[in-house]
Structures are given as C-alpha cells and as structure tokens.
Amino acid sequence: MTIPFNYKDRAKNYILLIALSLIFLPFRNNISSVFGIALFLFFFIDKENKPLSKLKVLLGNKIAILTLSIYIVHLIGLIYTSNFKYASLDLEIKLPLFILPFVIFAEKKLTFENLNVVLKYFTIGNILAVSFCFIRAGYRFYVTKSATVLFYNEFSNFMHPSYFSLYLGFNTIYLFYKISNSDRKQLNHTKNQIILLTISTLFIFGILTLSSKAGILIAALALLFFSIKELIKKKITLILLLSAISVIVFLLISYFKNNIVALSRFEEAKQELSSKSNSSNETNGSSNARLEIWKSSKKVLLKNLAIGVGTGDIKDELIKQYKKDDFTHGVVNENNCHNQYLQFFILFGVGGGLLFIVSLLYPAIISIRNHNALYIYFLFLIVTNMLVESMLESKAGVEFYALFNAILLNFTPRNEQ
Asked: How many of the other CB atoms lie within 10 Å of CB of 223?
C-alpha cells in the first residue's frame, strides 16, 4: 500500500508524516525529530476542525491526559528545582512526550490497515539500520581481524545496544503477530510468510549480536509469551516455524559460542552477582554497577519522598550520594538511576511516581478490555525494560515510547472495525 503525498488529502498526509517518523527512528538522527515538529505544526493545519475543538477532544480522553501528564509533571517540577540548566536540557529531550501524544490523540483513530502501513515503514527502517550495522561490522572485521567489532557497542552504530534491541524486539513481535493474523486465502500468502520469517530471523540475529543482556532476556520472554498464546490458539504451523528459528539460532550460538559477546556478558554478570566483595570501588561490571546505583538511588529517594528533588536536581543529588557511598564509577559516569520507576519517584516524590505508574496501568487495562494485543506486547517490553534502564532519560527511549504509545492507543483494533 502506497501513501502518495497530496496536499489536499489531510488523512493521507498524516499517515505519511507518522510513517516517515518511524522509518528514520532507528537511525537516531535529527531527521526523526524534524518530522515530530512537522506533526506538531500539522495539528494546526486543519480546515475541518479548529484547534479549540481538538483540545476539547484531548481533554475528554483520559488516556491522553494521563500520557500528557508525564511531561506536565516535569514542568511543575521546575517550581522547586535549582539546576535550571540541566532542567532545560531534560525538558528538551522529553519534549516528544508532550508533542507526539498531543497531536496523535487529537487526530482520528488509525484503522488496522493504517497501522500496518506505518509499521511497515518502521520495519523498513530497522532492516536498513541493522543491515548497515552487519555490513559495517563485517568490513571492520575483515580489516582488523578482531571479533570485538562484531558485537555490542562496536556493532550498534546508531544508538546504545539496549535501545536498538528494544526496537528490534518490538518489531519482531509485530512481524510474528502479522504472520499469526494473516489471511491464508490472500494472494501470495506463503511468499509473504517466508519474507516475514526471514526478516524476523534477521532481527533476532541482530538482537543477539547487539549483546544487550536486558534486550535478549526481554525479547526472549516476549517471544515465549507470544508462542504460548499461539499454542493455546492452536496455531501449530506458526509454533513449528518459531521452533525452527530457535533451533537454528541455538546451533549457531553453540558453534560460535567462544566469540559471542552476549554469552560472556551473561557469565560476567553471574560472577559479579555471586562475588562476595562489597567494595563500591571494585565495581566494574554493568550488573554490579546497577546494584550500587540502585542502593544509592534508594537513599536519595528516602530523603526526598514527599515531593522529590525537582526536574533539574536529580543528577546533582545522585552524584552527591555516589560520593558519600564511595561509588567512583557512578561519579565518573554521572549515572542516572538505571530504573525509570526509581527515577520518577526521586524526581517528583510519591505523588509523581504513582502518577507515572497509573499512566502505564490504566492504558494496559483498557487495552486488555479492547483486545489490543499489540499494545500489550509493546507495554510488556517497555515496563520490563524500565526496570533496568531509565529509558525516558534518552532521546532514543523517549521517541520510541512517545510515538508507539500514542499510535497503538489511538487505533481501532480489527475486532472493533
């Protein structure tokens, strides 16, 4: 399905802007931000509906209000913050949390077909991004003869491996969801299935090569839940295909196990967590570092439980605590909480933290009622990733969450059409 530009057809232009935002999203450049600004301007370019009437639509949508409240709380947090320089930078990074849902929830709901169109462009973007990473890594390996260029940070050219794993993990779930719900009577059905499975396999290899521990575990759990659900629905053919992919992946891991960074990172994490050393200064691995970060973050939270530290002061307060705890790694790297829930509670206290949790739970309940399975998978990936990453503190996490949270909550599932 093509989406040609036609300045008179507002609905098609709206889908075009979202599709272009998604195709550039995996490349983590300013182009995706440009389309976000274009979407905001698009809100005001509407002959049929005036901005005031759109605002009324937004105010009548509980999910939209909850979603927008995440950014609004940051504005309120300016009242009692002291580091306005950091606060202004934080507000700039998180601006998509306001702009994207503000525009998307004010527009008409996407149809199931519209959703497939925009997600097709997201898939194309991921194919191009991960293929570039594979080609680049292969060339660098040919030149350097060093296996390290094939994995983790060396492999991921556009963003941190944990976020790229999240992108590919969600995209893989979508492709399996599409395979599961495809019409067998459709022309070229078998050919389409093979293409989708090939792309899925590429993405799974991409996740393994990225070697993010959280990315691999979260994607594996999501795919496991998906497989169980499909088995209950008796989609035996799909389960066999998924099993075949799993066997191939297992055989390749077994063959290249000495070179796969992900395996060594899991082994390192096991050794770190089983280590009897309690010295913060001896913390080198990422798993141990997170434990030390969480310990210090908990202390900052308990000191500021009522209203938090405000929008701009969290980094300063964490570094102060890292110094008290003699946690040099945290001071040098200026680590955030590496847990979005902790981050939000420290920023805005109990009230703000609970508001954030409700902003995740309420849409989940509505989606379960509406049988919006794709959003449930998306939310599962988000809430689990937030346990080990402060994903709304980076542009890659903010734009991914803001775009898909609004898109998947503002479309009409097939069963309601």
From this structure: 21
